[in-house]
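We give its fold:
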Amino acid sequence: DTYFVVAHFHIVMGVSAFFGMFAGIYHWFPKMFGRFMNNTLGYIHFFLTFAGAYLIFWPMHYEGIAGMPRRYYDYSAWESFKQFESLNAFISIAAIIVFFAQLLFVVNFFVSIFRGRKCLVQNPWGSPSLEWTTPINPGHGNWPGEIPTVHRWPYDYKDDGHGNDFIPQTTPLREGEESH
């Protein structure tokens, strides 16, 4: 029951969940708001968060392997754990940096809603899945008029013979073609 458990749980469950949420927000932001988030701030946010997460949790793995127990608020009573005081200070500094990186994300999010570069195309990522066939800022029911018919698997990436590496789900299959 050491710091290894804390580090491993948070790097696997916590960090992966947050990166999934951030990826979804960056990906669907143009569809939700009709604008793009700032790319430069997005890259800074990603690299600070990525590096910071590992600067927090890899030293905790090391402390856990060295036998440092979790759920203790003060390690000064044990001489063997005093060697980790500077490492714990380093972890705290890394956590503060990661916190400020999240503030950068929040600023990027809200500023981009009003001042982000306008998304002028319906499908900026060239994604074949159905949600990108709706207009930007879709109204009630998502699609104006008739609901589109799905003919393909949502991730059917392949050359359509015209230089496109994707074919939307709504494109009918050609004769002899199969959806994978």
Remarks:
- The chain has two domains: 3-115, 121-180.
- The two ends are 47 Å apart (CA to CA).
